[in-house]
From TrEMBL:
Enzyme class: transferase
Catalytic activity: N(6)-dimethylallyladenosine(37) in tRNA + (sulfur carrier)-SH + AH2 + 2 S-adenosyl-L-methionine = 2-methylsulfanyl-N(6)-dimethylallyladenosine(37) in tRNA + (sulfur carrier)-H + 5'-deoxyadenosine + L-methionine + A + S-adenosyl-L-homocysteine + 2 H(+)
Role this protein plays: Catalyzes the methylthiolation of N6-(dimethylallyl)adenosine (i(6)A), leading to the formation of 2-methylthio-N6-(dimethylallyl)adenosine (ms(2)i(6)A) at position 37 in tRNAs that read codons beginning with uridine.
Details of cofactor binding: Binds 2 [4Fe-4S] clusters. One cluster is coordinated with 3 cysteines and an exchangeable S-adenosyl-L-methionine.
Subcellular location: Cytoplasm
Organism: Paenibacillus pasadenensis
Pfam families documented for this protein: Radical_SAM, TRAM, UPF0004
Residue intervals of the TRAM domain: 458-521
Assembly information from the UniProt record: Monomer.
Domain Radical SAM core: 225-455
Protein name: tRNA-2-methylthio-N(6)-dimethylallyladenosine synthase
Annotated GO MF terms: 4 iron, 4 sulfur cluster binding; metal ion binding; tRNA-2-methylthio-N(6)-dimethylallyladenosine(37) synthase activity
GO CC field: cytosol
Residue numbers binding [4Fe-4S] cluster 1: 94, 130, 164
């Protein structure tokens, strides 16, 4: 596979870089410098660094064109590397990470590894981490604490940390200082290098660190191991919005869109394989195509082309209100396989707070967008993400969030108490809303959302809706569960043979977070 090393941060071949800042070097010795890799000996552990994260580089947005590489292949000497061995990946965070895990599973299996259900059976364990919130990071360090015991019992076990946390200088520093029993640290931009990194770690028995601070090119044709009825398809990578509370633009790099022909080919192939639902993924899908220099082709155009492919349902996440344009609304309004569910993170109902968050829209423009969506797509379900207790949020500003939620009538929302993320601009603002006030605001917001959710569910009683049956309910194995086009959770009675099918269900009862219904139509007659 072609690889452009100019996109890599840190040392290029033959040039060593000073990584002293990442750990206490008082006892460290440089023991080797070759091929752009520097090996250090510290506290009895050899650490091989080829490139480490740099917050300063991650902020930059370069002008160099992103290249698309279509010739990915597992190196010949790695094809049987995993024969007789197994791997286990623990995934934290968002669907983007889930999808990255599918890619890594694909690569592991192309190397001959088998998937292990438990840590205990695995020869390689990877933690695919999330950096969005401090507590997500604490969980990973807690997990590493548990894994240390396993590593002591089985020194041959290879233990890796990847994902967004690895893109942070502070995290890499902490791993090198306190968790040096880890064997491998790599980031979000060089997932395709997993086979080579694994080989380096296995052969050298050194802690291998390779984290690119500048985003890589787009690598097509990576193997993927998908499971279930629903498939995720990445349409773009990175984010250029730089909301002041968010670490993603640093951990995932600049916005890079996959070429439409590659996305469409992947969706067609998934349709051919029988997937019932496809979710298009990106940190900000509405910016899709803005980076194309050779054509004018945006997210609305992509959705239009995908609407012609024979897959029953298509969703997308996540949207940024700023880039949500009229063309997209017009395409979504045509329905067909494009589900009428829009996740539209608002974050706050106060223009002042939105300004401090650098969201680049106002309360009024958000409400105007919602009005347009509802007018064009009757029955559209809107869900959101909301932060309470952002630095400086007053009682009045929080009340503006409550009134916006009432006005929009979100079906549901992910709600969060603000907590600072090191390295973001908001971390430098005074976090001056007392914890008790933040908690009370969150409670009131969640209570309101529960009332609105229940009211929306009550309005469904008596309606007949299309449900994709996904499996048994998590709480009641004797009941089947599935989702409507608007992403509502539905419980129903029926045989397991319905799993994977689209059925018609008449809603009979409303609950706060789901509805219950009974089969009608063909599926009911066949039971
Ligand atoms: S648009 Fe989303 S991913 Fe991008 S910086 Fe803002 S919150 Fe983060």
């Amino acid at each position: 596979m072609e690889r452009d090393s100019s996109n890599r941060s840190g040392a290029t071949a033959g040039e060593a870089k000073d990584y002293a800042k990442y750990f206490d070097f008082s006892t460290a010795k440089i023991i080797r410098e070759e091929d752009g890799k520097t090996a250090y000996r510290i506290n009895g552990r050899t650490i091989q660094v080829s490139s480490a994260p740099s917050h300063r580089d991650e902020k930059k947005r370069g002008k160099q064109e992103v290249e698309v590489h279509r010739a990915f292949g597992i190196l010949e000497d790695m094809a049987g590397f995993g024969r007789g061995k197994s791997y286990h990946i623990r995934t934290y965070g968002c669907q983007m990470n889930e999808h990255d895990t599918e890619v890594m599973r694909g690569m592991f299996e192309a190397m001959g590894y088998e998937q292990a259900d438990e840590y205990a059976q695995a020869d390689v364990i990877l933690l695919n981490t999330c950096a969005i919130r401090e507590n997500a990071e604490d969980k990973v360090f807690g997990e590493l604490g548990h894994l240390k015991k396993l590593k002591t019992e089985r020194p041959g076990l290879l233990l890796g940390v990847c994902g967004c946390m690895s893109q942070e200088e502070t995290v890499v520093s902490r791993i090198l200082q306190k968790h040096a029993f880890v064997d491998l640290v790599f980031g979000t931009h060089n997932i395709h290098r997993l086979p080579e990194l694994l080989r380096d770690a296995a052969h050298s028995r050194e802690l291998v660190v390779e984290v690119w601070s500048k985003e890589g090119d787009i690598i097509e044709n990576l193997p993927k191991k998908r499971e279930g009825l629903r498939a995720w398809v990445n349409i773009m990578y990175g984010c250029d919005k730089f909301c002041t509370y968010c670490i993603v633009p640093y951990t995932r790099g600049k916005e890079r869109s996959r070429r439409p022909e590659d996305v469409l080919a992947e969706v067609r192939e998934l349709a051919r394989q029988g997937f019932q639902e496809i979710t298009l993924l990106g940190q900000n899908v509405n910016a899709y195509g803005k980076d194309f220099e050779d054509r004018t082709y945006r997210f609305g155009d992509l959705m239009h082309d995908i609407s012609r492919i024979a897959v029953p349902r298509v969703r997308f996440t996540t949207s940024h209100p700023r880039d949500f344009d009229d063309r997209l609304i017009q395409v979504l309004a045509q329905g067909g396989n494009l589900a009428e569910h829009i996740h539209l993170p608002v974050q706050s109902g106060s223009t002042e707070v939105l300004k401090r968050m650098s969201r680049k829209y106002t309360r009024e423009s958000y409400l105007e967008l919602v009005r347009k969506i509802k007018a064009a797509i009757p029955g559209a379900s809107l869900t959101s993400d909301i932060i309470v207790g952002f630095p400086g949020e007053t009682d009045e500003q929080f009340e503006e969030t409550m009134s916006l939620v009432r006005e929009v009538r979100f079906d549901s929302a992910y709600t969060f108490i603000y907590s600072p993320r090191a390295g973001t601009p908001a971390a430098g603002m005074e976090d001056n809303v007392p914890e008790a006030v933040k908690k009370e605001r969150l409670r009131r917001l969640n209570d309101l959302l529960a009332v609105l959710g229940r009211e929306a569910n009550e309005a469904m009683v008596g309606q007949t809706v299309e449900v994709l049956v996904e499996g048994e309910s998590k709480t009641r194995p004797d009941v089947l569960s599935g989702r409507t086009r608007t992403n509502k959770l539905v419980h129903l009675d029926g045989p397991r043979s319905l799993v994977g099918r689209l059925v018609q269900v008449k809603v009979t009862e409303a609950h706060s977070w789901h509805v219950r219904g009974e089969l009608v139509g063909d599926a009911a007659e066949a039971v």
